[in-house]
Amino acid sequence: MRNFIIKRLLLSVLILFCTTFIIYATMRCLPTSYVEQMAIRLSSAPNAKPYSEWLEQLNASYGLDSDIFTGYVTWLKDFAVGNFGDSWKYTVPVMDKFVDSVGISFIMGVITMILELVISIPLGIIAATKQYSKADYAISAGALIGISLPTFFFATILKLIFAVKLQWFDTHGMVGRNYAQLDSWGQFLDVAHHMVLPIITITIVSIGGLMRYTRTNMLEVLNADYIRTARAKGLSEKKVIYSHAFRNTLIPLVTIVGGSLPGLFSGALITETLFAINGIGYVSYQAMVAGDIPFSMFYMTFIALLTLLGNLISDILYAVVDPRVRVA
Fold first, then answer.
1. Is residue 34 part of a domain?
2. Which of 152, 219, 243, 323 is the most buried (most CB within 10 A)?
């Protein structure tokens, strides 16, 4: 296992180099006129440096005044020492803006993932163990509805019912009007109250796929020969399902769990936009639309790193739930 992890880490480093180079090359394909427009806008601010100095600084900051390979090496050296530059759109250090916006998205992502696992896996098991029953049809129909619902449509329906009609929640924002007058516990409850509808939206539109995936894999395992052997030995149905079948069902599910790591930090763009939540998804989208190269480079590289880490975690979890991987 140690040699396997070392090998995968070395391979991940190579993939990361290739990925970051592609990202950098894509950024270099942006029209050069954008940098000139950015220099004009920055130089027009009060007491700002002249246009020529801003243009030279912006070109030099990411090696835009050199060829792609030389510029990539320059960017990579700065990135390796933690020099991520300043955001062109938000005019603050990239790391400061990232830390300021990623927290709320991470909290929403963790809560959503926990709810997704707690809801989807048990329902998928119930649907598989009671195949073609009313419970199976109801769960499968609910999963299809969740998969088919567009996020913006479902979020709008929730806001219409619970915010406009019933007035249980606010239509947008992260805090209420009296947030500043509340104590620390009251402020926590106020933020939690505003997070209910966004978390429900993300959870409902996410559980359908995992639910059907769990059902499909559970049905495949229940039809295996060793399950019939376990039943023939007189084991209880509960022990057959949860001690034998469910353990093997976890093997493909760990891929989804490991692959969900980037999603915890990437944010939910549509949901954050609809509910006016200044999370990392919405912030990064605005940065990319504005051509904010420093922030976009950092964000996409960070997501690529998390994706590689998630794949490594999935491979390690394979060995935990399946002893045959360790033997191999």
1. no
2. 219
For 86-121, write each residue's pLDDT tens digit: 887 888 889 999 998 888 888 888 898 889 888 988
If we measure between CA atoms, which residue out of 198, 1, 10, 4 comes closest to residue 112? Answer: 198
pLDDT of residue 62: 64
CA proximity to 237, closest of 128, 123, 120: 128
Number of independent structural domains in the chain: 1
| Structure-token pair, residue 321 | 């739930």
The 10s digit of each residue's pLDDT in 289-315 is 877 888 888 888 988 888 888 888 877
Q: Cα 258 vs. chain centroid, distance in angstroms?
A: 11
Q: How far is 85 from 92, CA to CA, in rounded Å? A: 9
This prediction has a pTM of 0.79
For residue 86, the cross-strand partners are 93
Residue 86 located in a structural domain: no
Helix (H, G, I), strand (E, B) or coil at 6: helix
> Residue 217 belongs to what domain range?
100-290
How far apart are alpha carbons 26 and 30 in whole angstroms?
7
Query: What local confidence, expressed as pLDDT, does residue 14 receive?
Result: 92
d(CA 126, CA 214): 10
Predicted pLDDT of residue 325:
60
CB 9 within 8 A of CB 290: no
Residue 224 lies in a domain: yes
Give a yes or no: residue 118 inside a domain.
yes
Please choose, from the candidates 225, 257, 258, 269, the residue with its C-alpha nearest in 3D space to the C-alpha of residue 244: 225
